[in-house]
# Entry
Amino acid sequence: MFLEALPEQIRHVRALASRVDANLEAATELRRIAHKLGGSGTTFGFPEISREGYLCSRAPDSDLPARADALLRTLDAVAGDPSP
# Structure
């Protein structure tokens, strides 16, 4: 179930990450989803998603775009999509 929902989560994170620099609501939503993914990663046995999710959810504003990119790379790798 977790892997089936992952493509939609990736699309949502990618959309938010593209707006995070200029939009406080996007940053807040991105952190919320990253936190949720961190918990789900732990629950479903994906420690790499858990780690990146928690790092993204706790990142300061200045680091959030880079942490979002790292989270997306991890999500793409788990989902089997090597695209940037």
Observations:
- Residues 24-43 form the longest helix (20 residues).
